[in-house]
Design a protein that fits this description.
Largest sheet: 14 strands, parallel
Number of strands: 21
Distance between the termini: 39 Å
Order of helices and strands: EEEEEEEEEEEHEEEEEEEEEE
Number of helices: 1
Helix content: under 10%
Structural class: mainly beta
Length: about 240
Amino acid sequence: ILPGTYTLTSGITLPNGISIRGLSLQTVVIQMIATSNASMITMGENCRVEDITLNLTSSTNGLTLNGIVFAGTSSQTSKLRTCVLTVDDSAITTTSTVNGALFSGTGSLNSSTFSFNSIKGSTINVRSNGAGNKRGILVSNSNQVSTRDVNIFVAQPRVTSSTGSYVGVETNDSGNTGSIQLRSTTVGVVLPTGVQAYTASDILQTTPATILDPTYLATAGIQIGPGTDLITKSAGGKGFSTYN
């Protein structure tokens, strides 16, 4: 894609085996202004998105917004590389559900889980307001996800009275098998102070609620690997596992 700013009127679903690559991260911008529920990019299998600035914004209350969705088994076959992804609905006043990257597909532990790195060399920013769940990355199904050299930031809400949940990385798979391995990854939020009503944590392992038998590189939930930095050192009072 040549330099320029390209505005989408609806989200893009990539067919299997398709790559989108910008000439330069600094000069190629794809943007979308949502007035209804929206997923900006949905990955097919064996796809790649690279060297693009991606901006999804909205000022409409009550929406569900996803910057990029890894469906099917794309968490182990498709890649996001050297991109800056921002999802921003901070102008709203009530409730929304916001995910920078949503891993809603399936997967199983195999040799590619350790080495594949679904997201590498990229930045994910989430800026929102009001009530609802705001996530930099959400693993909501049995995906096996890995990241390397990634920065994830979820900003504090604009209004003090906001009651939402603001989290950098969450695993919440009802089957208790979904996992994410973070390596050389920085995750940060802004913790509430004083009268601020929202909740926040760098990571949140909602599932599995407990870790019964941790196994190297095979534990469900959030795995904190080498070089990972949790800016506020917060995990929402939940467990997680580590490895070297």
